[in-house]
Design a protein that fits this description.
Elements: H1 2-26, H2 41-46, H3 53-80, H4 85-98, H5 102-123, H6 126-136, H7 144-154, H8 159-180, H9 186-195, H10 197-207, H11 220-227
Helix pairs in contact: 3-7, 3-8, 3-10, 5-6, 5-7, 8-9, 8-10
């Protein structure tokens, strides 16, 4: 009985540790580079595709769908193979080949590089530093979805926690960009984020076991709008 109790305590302590890590990564103060991106929302508003509240919610839904259908398979696979550097490099190369939207591609690289740098300085694991050396030597591109899954796997977060955290970061980034652009207020933003949680979880479950061979864009208009970001004369966000 004592051994069973000790095992329960150990498992509880492990879960508590990963919860603290999860909260730290989810904190908006954790610098992953997302603050300079809008997932195409700035382009959508300035090109007149999102002009009202319902339009914003529709755009937000499309962003979540694209993140889940395209990026989540790479998050899953890199989380699963975080101990195999060659597989991580292969997945990173696949994202580079698949992500033909030049704005989304450079945003993914920039945010992934920022995440890896932050993770190295925050957590200090040698595996992270080794991957950063690969990045500095141009052995990898450092795409965000792959770096995210790799980091979370290394930190012992479960695949479900990792998926939820990834979609949460997408949700928060788009909503935060709407606040900074003046489309919604901060309190309304929190209400929308709470309202979208159930939908985000439903989307996660739909794509939770998708493979990288099944990675696809399910909301192409949103993808096109992000690609048009460079056509803006003046802009607040990098993408």
């Amino acid at each position: 009985m004592t051994d069973l109790n000790n095992q329960d305590i150990t498992e509880t302590e492990t879960e508590s540790t990963t919860t603290w890590i999860l909260l730290q990564i989810a904190d908006s103060a954790f610098p992953t580079g997302g603050f300079s991106h809008s997932f195409g929302f700035e382009s959508a508003t300035k090109h007149g595709f999102v002009t009202e509240y319902n339009g914003f919610k529709g755009f937000l839904l499309s962003c979540l769908q694209n993140a889940a259908s395209f990026s989540l398979p790479f998050v899953n696979e890199s989380h699963k193979n975080y101990q195999t550097v060659d597989r991580i490099k292969e997945l990173d190369g696949m994202v580079q080949a698949y992500l033909s939207n030049h704005v989304a591609n450079r945003a993914s690289i920039r945010q992934g590089n920022s995440l890896l740098d932050t993770a190295c300085k925050t957590f200090g694991y040698q595996e992270l530093k080794n991957l950063q050396v690969q990045l500095e030597n141009k052995g990898i591109f450092g795409h965000f979805a792959v770096m995210f899954g790799f980091m979370c796997g290394l930190l012992n977060l479960s695949v479900i926690q990792t998926q939820q955290l990834f979609l949460f970061s997408t949700l928060r980034t788009v909503i935060a960009s709407a606040v900074r652009l003046g489309n919604i207020g901060p309190l309304q933003a929190q209400s929308i984020q709470f309202e979208m949680q159930k939908t985000a979880e439903e989307i996660r479950k739909k794509f939770e076991i998708s493979t990288v061979e099944e990675a696809t864009t399910t909301a192409p208009v949103t993808d096109f709008l992000q690609g048009a970001h460079d056509n803006l004369f003046s802009k607040l966000f990098y993408s």
